[in-house]
Amino acid sequence: MKLHNYFRPTGNLSLFGAFLFMVYGASYRPQSTVAGIVDHYKVGDVVHSILAPADFYRMHGGMDPYGEPKWRLMTGQLLSANTDLRKLFSSQLINGTNLPDARGVFLRGMNEDRSTGSGDAAGNRGIGTYQSDEFKAHNHRTDILVKWGNWSYGGNNWATQWGDGQVTGNTGGAETP
């Protein structure tokens, strides 16, 4: 199933089959929508949706006073100076002006000073920063079947048993505690 992520930079935020981010709108103000559904999103919220972008926009907020959608797909794009999100939270955005790029990635919660042994191995990352793919370092033991015994006339007299195997080298990194 394909998901979109949307961000609402103004007013309210929602995600769309991808992540959506609300970039414009009055914080905490419920907004009536299609079929009596009421949104309780606020600027900066992130929402997942399986709706197509046009359907999501139609159901969740439409346009801001500047003619731009209230919700944005999180594709790392530059935010207009008119958005509430940029005005309020520019210090927490990438370069102060761009939304995070959530295309093809998983969102991760903030570490908030949690131990790197049980949280993010890199410690406290900035909001919206990228983390590359990695799995925790590990190795594997491989057992081998060995034959032992004496050769006798007319055939062999071998017995089999499990012998000491080999241990593979480590692969991976410090991630995924």
Automatic annotation (TrEMBL):
Give the protein name, as stated in the record. Uncharacterized protein
- This protein's superkingdom? Bacteria
